[in-house]
Amino acid sequence: xxxxxxxxxxxxxxxxxxxxxxxxxxxxxxxxxxxxxxxxxxxxxxxxxxxxxxxxxxxxxxxxxxxxxxxxxxxxxxxxxxxxxxxxxxxxxxxxxxxxxxxxxxxxxxxxxxxxxxxxxxxxxxxxxxxxxxxxxxxxxxxxxxxxxxxxxxxxxxxxxxxxxxxxxxxxxxxxxxxxxxxxxxxxxxxxxxxxxxxxxxxxxxxxxxxxxxxxxxxxxxxxxxxxxxxxxxxxxxxxxxxxxxxxxxxxxxxxxxxxxxxxxxxxxxxxxxxxxxxxxxxxxxxxxxxxxxxxxxxxxxxxxxxxxxxxxxxxxxxxxxxxxxxxxxxxxxxxxxxxxxxxxxxxxxxxxxxxxxxxxxxxxxxxxxxxxxxxxxxxxxxxxxxxxxxxxxxxxxxxxxxxxxxxxxxxxxxxxxxxxxxxxxxxxx
Length: 430
Ligand SMILES: Nc1ncnc2c1ncn2[C@@H]1O[C@H](COP(=O)(O)OP(=O)(O)OP(=O)(O)O)[C@@H](O)[C@H]1O
Ligand SMILES: [Mg+2]
Prior knowledge:
With 430 residues, this protein is an alpha+beta fold. It folds into 4 domains: 5-96, Rossmann fold, CATH 3.40.50.20; 126-199, ATP-grasp fold, A domain (Dna Ligase, domain 1, 2-Layer Sandwich); 204-328, 2-Layer Sandwich (D-amino Acid Aminotransferase, Chain A, domain 1); 332-426, D-amino Acid Aminotransferase, Chain A, domain 1 (2-Layer Sandwich), CATH 3.30.470.20. The chain has 11 helices and 19 strands. It has helices spanning 14-25, 57-70, 84-94, 110-119, 133-141, 171-180, 246-262, 296-304, 308-317, 390-403, 414-426, and strands at residues 5-9, 29-35, 48-52, 73-77, 127-130, 149-153, 163-165, 195-199, 204-213, 216-227, 235-240, 268-276, 282-288, 330-336, 342-348, 359-362, 369-370, 381-387, 405-409. The strands form 4 sheets. The chain has an 8-stranded antiparallel beta sheet with strand order 13-12-9-10-11-14-18-16, sandwiched between helices. Strands 3-2-1-4 form a 4-stranded parallel beta sheet. A hairpin with a 5-residue loop joins strand 12 (268-276) and strand 13. Residues 416-430 have low confidence and may be disordered. Adenosine-5'-triphosphate binds at residues 125, 150, 152, 156-160, 162, 198, 200-201, 205, 227, 233, 235, 273, 285-286, 376. Magnesium ion (MG) binds at residues 273, 286.
């Protein structure tokens, strides 16, 4: 469909940039939909943009569809976690390949997700939606939950507002953190959407990166995660592809296939987070109807030779997607976090891009305030290492990580502390 245009819902971020490059390479015009608050002069590589209000789904569907019809848009997609439901609704309105509009909400709202996954027989942690303190106490007293438990927002992302609670004394603060960390754009923010209390699942964390086309799913890779311990779990590394024992892999794929169907993913990427326990049992923590963030697309490209961005364009355009690996290597991304909260004063030993290190990114401003990692937004930078051999790649990444020294001045005086949260975020350049 040469000459067809592509429309991205939110064109910011590295995954969107890669989609724009993939589309431009094919001579496809790229348009963007943006929300009023984020609207800015469109980047030169964009053919145009429609500004709407992402918080008002009906209105956004109408604005975007009207814009798309006038420009012969042949594909609508998004890499933005918060816009996957809107993407499904717009695709349905325009008759383009997309996910089931009636189920797309369940890939975003974790209460709805728990409902559809349970109904589909997917193994998930016992999850209770709570709206007030009485609900919260009842959930904590539920024998299927117990302690430790996890308290999390219904619709946030990037680990924001997620707390692993080990003591009853910490529940009030955790509940408050979950209430405050609501989804971006205000979607679902009207009224009291509640928070979730979930059983804690012990085990190793993985994600499964998949692409579904015409309701047929290809699992591209299993990714192993390194996650911080303690109350706030932040992903500090992804490595792929992981070779699980065949029986475990089959069990994981079974759960993930069922989860993909349950949330109505028919055309597009998915990123399913699972925990595998000591007995090889797989529990699904969540599923997202988008490509894994944290540079997972880049890892797939380098380790397996799969151009996921080109593949996602093909899926969105309704063309057959090339999903067969053409390489058999390994790739890892490591994220750097601050040793403690304070002012970032020095950084030494951060790797440079070069052979086997295809990507490095430092995003924390020198002299700015930084936080210990409580969510993905607190990560300071990252680097990617790739190569043919998994053990060598991991060793090299470990060695590079050991050379990095991040100096953070002692915790600021108490009156600075209140500002720490927002200041540390604004110190992070896009
Ligand atoms: N039920 C659970 N049992 C054990 N650990 C959990 C559970 N729920 C969440 N976690 C931990 O907290 C992390 C963040 O939780 P979750 O994935 O639900 O939040 P999120 O905001 O959607 O994160 P992201 O967008 O980064 O995937 C998980 O990666 C995991 O380490
Ligand atoms: Mg998650």
